[in-house]
């Protein structure tokens, strides 16, 4: 995606998940197929981790009708309801309320599924954050809140935005059990979600603050250290602890080579699919605008 972006074939801004994949993978690998996730505009890793179709994702970035939102959503609005990826939004914090509503519906319908709401540290400053946590406690909803704390809201560090930068303390103030995962260990996160899921399904929210770090600029394919708001030294420990690289070295050489070859082929096929897919016809502008009602 980073290589294709300068060609202008990708028709929307991209907020790359490079460096932040472990949060989505660790959580989603521990979920059941009927469980549902809601995400942020930095949603590529989440969409794929929940089982979203790669071809449909790349086609969506290209603005093609074969995309997961029929070419009308772009990078920031990936959705795959068939696999439990119930949408992402370009507006900070808005999907927290959507996740709450879905969790309330699951409880009302007496279903055994749970919801995971992903959001960044910047979203914890939105009014909907506090309102949603309070409602989740009052109704004892089957929801796990996952704050992907990459420490920055665009270019401003958390310490410069929050008088007391302790997200877990704020969750606990509403009566929600909370814990902070400092190291971004994808396998540890997987085990935690596996252990928490039965309790949450029974009714009762939980909160995780997962520390992470984005490698690229806020939006776009490049690095942005020249802007001066962060340094390469700050990022270095996260690169050294990269979970993709860590897992790679846990797989033996021949099997790893085979997996990497298969993945590269899948990626090439997805871009070829996007290139060859048609753009949406004009009448698509009027599709899915409202629900038809028939007497």
Describe this structure in words.
By secondary structure, the protein is α/β, with parallel strands linked by helices. The chain has a single domain (5-213, 221-279), classed as Thiamin diphosphate (ThDP)-binding fold, Pyr/PP domains (Rossmann fold), CATH 3.40.50. 38% of the residues lie in helices and 12% in strands. The protein has a six-stranded parallel β-sheet with strand order 2-1-3-4-8-7, sandwiched between helices. The chain has a two-stranded antiparallel sheet with strand order 5-6. Strand 5 (152-153) and strand 6 form a beta hairpin. Helix 1 crosses helix 7, helix 3 (54-61) packs across helix 10 and helix 4 (94-108) packs parallel to helix 5. The model has no long low-confidence stretch (mean pLDDT 96).
């Amino acid at each position: 995606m980073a290589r294709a972006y300068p060609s202008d074939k990708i028709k929307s801004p991209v907020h790359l998940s490079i460096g932040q994949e472990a949060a989505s993978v660790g959580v989603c690998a521990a979920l059941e197929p009927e469980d549902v996730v809601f995400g942020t505009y930095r949603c590529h890793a989440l969409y794929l981790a929940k089982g979203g179709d790669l071809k449909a994702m790349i086609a969506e970035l290209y603005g093609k009708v074969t995309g997961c939102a029929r070419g009308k959503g772009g990078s920031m609005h990936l959705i795959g309801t068939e696999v439990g990826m119930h949408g992402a939004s370009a507006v900070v914090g808005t999907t927290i309320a959507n996740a709450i509503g879905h969790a309330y519906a699951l409880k009302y319908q007496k279903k055994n599924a749970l919801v995971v709401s992903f959001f960044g540290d910047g979203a914890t400053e939105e009014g909907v954050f506090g309102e949603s946590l309070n409602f989740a406690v009052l109704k004892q909803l089957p929801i796990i809140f996952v704050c992907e704390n990459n420490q920055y809201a665009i270019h401003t560090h958390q310490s410069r935005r929050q008088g007391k930068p302790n997200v877990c303390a704020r969750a606990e103030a509403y009566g929600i059990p909370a814990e902070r995962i400092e190291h971004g260990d994808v396998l540890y996160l997987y085990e935690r979600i596996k252990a928490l899921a039965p309790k949450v399904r029974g009714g009762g929210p939980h909160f995780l603050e997962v520390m992470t770090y984005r490698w690229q600029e806020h939006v776009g394919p490049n690095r942005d250290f020249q802007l001066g708001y962060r340094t390469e030294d700050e990022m270095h420990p996260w690169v050294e602890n990269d979970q993709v690289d860590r897992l790679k070295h846990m797989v033996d050489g021949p099997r790893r080579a085979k997996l990497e070859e298969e993945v590269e082929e899948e990626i090439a096929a997805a871009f070829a699919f996007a290139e060859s897919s048609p753009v949406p016809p004009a009448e698509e502008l009027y599709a899915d605008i409202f629900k038809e009602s028939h007497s």
